[in-house]
Amino acid sequence: MRKWVALLLAYLVLGAAAALHLVGADHAVQHYGRESVPPGAGFWLGTDHLGRDVLALTLQGLRISLQVGTVAAGLAVSLGAALGMAAGWYRGAVDRAAVWLSSAVAAIPAILLILAIGFMLGQGYLSAIAAIAAVSWVGVFRVVRAETERQKTRDYVLAARGAGAGTLQVLPRHILPNLLPMLLVQLALHFVYAVNTEVILSFLGVGVAEQPSWGRTILFGVHDLAEGHPWPLAAVTVAMFGLIFPVQRLADHLRDRLDPRAAAPR
Question: Where are the domains of the chain?
Answer without folding.
Answer: 2-26+45-258
